[in-house]
Amino acid sequence: MKYLVAIDGTEESHKAFQIAKDLYKSGDNVSIVTCCPTNKTTDVEKAESLLTNYSKMCSESGMPNDTILMNVDPKKGILDAVENNQTDVLILGTRGMGIIKRALIGSVSQHVRDKVSCDVIIAK
């Protein structure tokens, strides 16, 4: 089974990682993706640090993993990562935005859930 876990540093994305950790069985693979839509050095460094920390957590748990840094909007980046990595299950968090805020800026988890062809688990 190939899991793709989308992380962004929020508590909800950490819950998504924990779900992947709970589901993991020997022989599975975990890919960790984060998106950095800007090329500002500080933002890229934060994204790389986040990926390094989660990769280390995977390795410490005996989970083979790879990391993916997408330099695009999260909606596009996660969709591209799913497609490019032959993902079986996408796991991501949701911030639980209200109806108005979700209508104005859109929900990444909802958008991705509606577009991908693989199974999706959304952590709250």
From TrEMBL:
Looking at the Swiss-Prot or TrEMBL record, what is one Pfam family this protein matches?
A: Usp
Q: Which organism is it from?
A: Cavenderia fasciculata (Slime mold)
Please identify the protein, giving its name as recorded.
UspA domain-containing protein
InterPro entries the record matches: Rossmann-like_a/b/a_fold, Universal_stress_UspA, UspA
What range(s) does the UspA domain occupy?
3-124
The uppermost taxa in this organism's lineage are:
Eukaryota, Amoebozoa, Evosea, Eumycetozoa, Dictyostelia
